[in-house]
């Protein structure tokens, strides 16, 4: 492997940072480019008045020794045991419905027992659902060991459940839930993590949802220092192997010659030559704008043009001079559903209208990382999130933030008050002693990360877009590879894997 081979990485979110680190580890001369002023994409935090806020990271699974995320970081020379802190093992997720609270615990067997105690008449259906979920967990672990080159004989056991699981690669999660129980409340509980993949149960691929849930089958973790801590660990790992980074470097075009990548051209005309280019931005941008149409099959161009993005978010970042643990929050995520109709919380995505009451997600980041890095002593940082239709903000998207005017500010404030009213109804008195109150709309996400339609999870994991119908690491252009949430899905682990896959493919590329 010649160390003189130049690799360029476009975008420095989790997938781009992982690509840079693995490519540098494999001996490439790496330069990672980001169009923004700061490295990290959704991992890049912002700070105000001593409070530090995450834009997109809430928890990570498979962080124990021998598990996927732990081993990926270890392979890069990062002490994963030091980086990650476990969330509450008895309830890393709390689902709060109108008259029912359910804490998601580890391991899967304990969570199944908890639900069986709550719903004793649904034992058979829970056995069916958790049988598939347990099979997905075994498949997840077997795939992880295979990817890491450490398969074991017992992985063959996971293969016995493949036929039963594979049918759910063609069927939505809602069908599995309805097949398992007719109890309205239990159906809502089994769909409680839907916000994590930003789709209602009727739209998300069943197997994709099962694998996501399985990723947290042995608990959930949060990085010390939040998203910024995770970003810094990846940056340091890449730089330790010689990788370099440039900000304010907007790639305008990926150049090719005879079907092979030759470099990129930046806004302003600067050309940077390369043997390998890994694009870790949305595939619709890479394949729809950066690569010449003549270099791609018509079918792939059409696919990139019609991809449905994941749902956009509206976030409220709160910094408060109070300890939220005294108000009932802990080292966990909280999902607040206004009813047992989980579908309703996502209806805005498809109707363009907001529901009467929002589904809310709470992330008390300063409790998840009690080191003091995210909030001053005696204070707390809190992220409050809901999903909104990007279409409601489209008329302002072409304008710079400073020029969006009072109508945009008024609509932004209206949604924030709608969310805070619901939060106060569910957690009376939680918000107070406020020092920082900032908002992030779908346009904020697009401004800061250039996410298509402000979507934080890349292409939606629907039946027509996930798995074999999704995008691949390899492209028809020799030397051009994809990484990021558009390859294996959103979240830390899929994006880390996308970087590993891009590096692996780059090593195999003809010189």
Describe this structure in words.
The protein has 511 residues and is of the alpha/beta class. 36% of the residues lie in helices and 18% in strands. It contains 19 helices and 19 strands. The strands form five sheets. A seven-stranded mixed β-sheet has the order 7-6-15-16-17-14-18. The chain has a five-stranded parallel β-sheet with strand order 9-2-1-13-19, covered by helices on one side. Strand 11 and strand 12 form a beta hairpin. Helix 12 (283-290) packs across helix 13 (298-306). The protein is globular, with a radius of gyration of 22 Å.
Task: Measure the end-to-end span.
Answer: 10 Å
State the secondary-structure class: alpha/beta
Q: How large, in whole angstroms, is the Cα Rg?
A: 22 Å
* Largest sheet composition: 7 strands, mixed
**What is the helical fraction, as a range of percent?**
25-40%
> What is the tally of helical segments?
19
Spatially, the strands of the biggest sheet line up as 7-6-15-16-17-14-18
What would you say about this model in short?
Residues 16-502 form the Amine oxidase domain. The chain is of the alpha/beta class and 511 residues long.
């Amino acid at each position: 492997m010649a160390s003189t081979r130049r690799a360029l990485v476009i975008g420095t979110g989790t997938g781009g940072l992982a690509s840079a680190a693995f490519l540098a580890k494999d001996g490439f001369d790496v330069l990672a480019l980001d169009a923004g002023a700061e490295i990290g994409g959704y991992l890049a935090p912002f700070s105000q008045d001593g409070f530090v806020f995450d834009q997109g990271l809430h928890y990570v699974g498979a962080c124990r020794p021998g598990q996927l995320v732990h081993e990926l970081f270890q392979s890069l020379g990062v002490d994963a045991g030091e980086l990650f802190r476990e969330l509450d093992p008895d309830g890393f997720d709390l689902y709060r419905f109108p008259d029912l609270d359910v804490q998601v615990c580890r391991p899967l067997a304990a969570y199944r027992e908890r639900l069986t105690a709550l719903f004793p008449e649904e034992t058979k259906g829970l056995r069916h659902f958790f049988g598939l979920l347990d099979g997905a967990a075994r498949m997840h672990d077997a795939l992880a060991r295979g990817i890491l080159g450490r398969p074991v004989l017992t992985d063959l056991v996971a293969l016995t459940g493949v036929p039963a699981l594979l049918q759910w690669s063609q069927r939505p999660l809602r069908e599995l839930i309805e097949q398992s129980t007719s109890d309205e409340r239990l159906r809502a509980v089994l769909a409680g993590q839907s916000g994590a993949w930003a789709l209602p149960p009727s739209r998300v691929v069943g197997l994709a949802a099962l694998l996501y849930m399985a990723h947290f089958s042995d608990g959930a973790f949060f990085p010390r220092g939040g998203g910024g801590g995770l970003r810094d660990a990846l940056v340091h790992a890449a730089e330790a192997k010689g990788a370099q980074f440039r900000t304010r470097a907007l790639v305008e075009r990926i150049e090719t010659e005879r079907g092979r990548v030759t470099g990129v051209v930046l806004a302003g005309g600067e050309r940077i030559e390369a043997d390998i280019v890994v694009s870790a931005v949305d595939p619709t941008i890479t394949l729809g704008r950066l690569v010449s149409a003549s270099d791609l099959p018509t079918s792939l161009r059409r696919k990139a043009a019609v991809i449905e993005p994941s749902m956009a978010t509206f976030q409220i970042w709160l910094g408060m001079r109070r300890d939220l643990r005294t108000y009932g929050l802990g080292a966990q995520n909280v999902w607040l559903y206004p009813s047992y109709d989980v579908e309703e919380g996502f209806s805005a995505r498809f109707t363009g209208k907001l529901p009467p009451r929002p589904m809310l997600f709470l992330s008390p980041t300063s409790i998840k990382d009690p080191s003091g890095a995210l909030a001053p002593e005696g204070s707390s940082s809190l992220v409050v999130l809901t999903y909104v239709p990007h279409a409601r903000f489209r008329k302002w998207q072409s304008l710079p933030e400073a020029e969006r005017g009072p109508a945009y500010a008024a609509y932004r404030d209206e949604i924030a008050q709608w969310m805070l009213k619901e939060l106060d109804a569910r957690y009376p008195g939680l918000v107070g002693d406020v020092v920082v109150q900032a908002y992030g709309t779908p346009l904020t996400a697009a401004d800061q990360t250039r996410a298509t339609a402000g979507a934080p999870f890349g292409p939606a994991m629907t039946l027509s877009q996930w798995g074999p119908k999704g995008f691949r690491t390899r492209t028809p252009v020799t030397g051009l590879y994809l990484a990021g949430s558009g390859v294996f899905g959103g979240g830390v682990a899929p994006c880390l894997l996308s970087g590993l896959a891009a590096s692996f493919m780059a090593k195999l590329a003809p010189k």
